[in-house]
Amino acid sequence: MVYRPTEKTQARKAALKKQLLDAALLLVATGGFGALTIQAVAQQAGIATGAVYKHFESKAQLCAEVFRLATEKEVAMVRETALREGAPATRLLDTIETFAKRALRGQRLAYALIAEPVDNLVDAERLRYRQDYADIFRQLVEQGIGSGDFAPQVSAVSAAALVGAITESLVGPLSWQMNARPSMEQTRLIRSIQAFCLRAVAMKTPDHENWVADPSKA
Predict the structure, then answer these.
(1) 171-184 mean pLDDT
(2) Which option is the CATH number for 64-217: 1.10.357.10, 3.20.20.80, 3.60.15.10, 2.60.40.10?
(3) Vertex 135, ends 98 and 118: CA angle to 5°?
(4) Residue 128 burial (CB count, 10 A)
C-alpha cells in the first residue's frame, strides 16, 4: 500500500518548513547570507541539523527560498505604490521613496538582497526579482507616456534603467551603514535618486522617433 500523508501530517510539515524559513530569514536580516548555515538555521529553529535536509536539499536551495520569501513582500509594496491611482510622476517619486526608506531601515537585509555575493541559485532569483521590478516600472512608464507626463521612450529599456539606477544608488550607502562609515543624509540621498529618475523618464529628446531609430541623425 502506498503511503499517503494525512492533512495533519502535511500541515505539520508545512509549519516546520515555515519555522525554518523564518529562522533563516532572521539570520540573513542580521548577518547577511554569509551568516546562513544549515547548522545555524537548525539551532535558531531548535531542531536537529539533519531535520533541515528533509525540507531543503542544500544550503543553496534554502538560500534561494529565503531570497524569494524576503523579496515577495518588497515587490508587492512597490507594485501597490507604483500602480495605484494618481499622477505617474507622483507615483514614481513615491515608489522610489518607499523602496529606499525600507532598504535603509533594514540595511543588512537590503544589502543581502541587492548586492551581497551569493550562490548561483540566489543569483538566478535576484535576476527574476529585478525583472519583477522592471515589469512594474514598465507599466508605470507606459502610463506616464500615455498621459503625456513622460516623454516618448522605449518603456522596457527605461524600466530596466530605473531599477538599475535605484538599486545601484543604494549599494554604497547600505554598505557604509554596515561598516559605520559616514554616508549621505537619508532625505538628501532619496531626493537625489528621485530627481535623477524623474529627469530620466520625463526629459524629451529632439525628434524622439528618429533619434531612437538612428542616433546619428539626431
Answers:
(1) 68
(2) 1.10.357.10
(3) 75
(4) 12
